[in-house]
Amino acid sequence: MTNLHGESPIRLLALLQAKNEENYLPGWLENIEDCVDGIVALDDGSSDSTTDILASSRKVLEIIRKTPGATWNERENQMSLVHAGRKHLADWFLCLDADERLESQFMARAQELLQQAEADGVQVYQFHLRDLWGDVDHYRVDGIWGSKSVMRLFKNVPTHKRFDLRQLHRFWMPLEIVTNLKTSGRHSGLNIYHLSMVTAEDRWARVSKYEQLDPNHLYQRIGYRYLADETNLALEAIPEGRGFSPRMEALVYRK
């Protein structure tokens, strides 16, 4: 069986939803291109050069374009990407936002993780989510910040048909995996670094964004002001050998 391009099935496919991400995308592509076999992206009606940047990448197999001006619909976007990825016959999906970066050890360990998954029946891997704070060399570790994790690498099982109904802060992977995490989930031990929390301006912009998307806190009961609260702030340096690249582009972009 071949994929849409008449090639062999894809082992690891990255999925990206983006809107007006021209500042972050060059670094995102440089960070991820050598780690995956292909990329499927969704441009949610960008008014900048997002689509052109994606189209220039040798690894981007498909770009789903949405009409400018439409309301952001996270569930619809993610579902569209998963279904598109299935058409490309991907074995595994890796889901990263444009302002997130894989740590440097991911490429060396990716095949090992997937081989272990096949041997042990693992269907999803977690990552530490490290919010860079103050600069690009430190991340926040106090309170909930030190335990934040995300499930972003999951096996493509086409018979899995049930998906999270939530519009925000939802699981990418099917509920057949979510409801069986004790046996099908494992922590990768690896980091994903989040670039758009470095400055106070960035953090308040995120508070504003999510308060508009979820004004009644239906999808996060604690609300969003905590994103800018520095009470009990504690930072930790990125360990040697656990950083990310490229570095220069991570010196904080404004949207």
Describe this structure in words.
This protein is α/β, with parallel strands linked by helices and 255 residues long. The termini are far apart. The model has no long low-confidence stretch (mean pLDDT 92). The strands form 2 sheets. An 8-stranded mixed β-sheet has the order 3-2-1-4-8-6-9-5. The protein has one domain: Spore Coat Polysaccharide Biosynthesis Protein SpsA, Chain A (Alpha-Beta Complex). It is globular, with a radius of gyration of 18 Å.
Q: What topology emerges from the helices and strands here?
A:
Elements: E1 12-18, H1 25-32, E2 38-43, H2 50-55, E3 60-65, H3 74-87, E4 92-95, E5 100-102, H4 106-120, E6 124-131, E7 138-140, E8 149-155, H5 175-178, H6 181-184, E9 185-194, H7 200-213, E10 235-237
Parallel strand pairs: 1-2, 1-4, 2-3, 6-9
Antiparallel strand pairs: 4-8, 5-9, 6-8, 7-10
Determine the structural class based on helices, strands and strand pairing.
alpha/beta
CATH architecture: Alpha-Beta Complex
Strand content: 15-25%
Total count of strands = 10
Strand arrangement within the widest β-sheet reads 3-2-1-4-8-6-9-5
Question: What is the CATH topology classification name?
Answer: Spore Coat Polysaccharide Biosynthesis Protein SpsA, Chain A
- Summed up, the domain count is 1
Amount of helix: 25-40%
CATH class: Alpha Beta
Bulk shape: globular
Number of helices: 7
Low-confidence stretches: none
Mind summarizing the main beta sheet? Answer: 8 strands, mixed
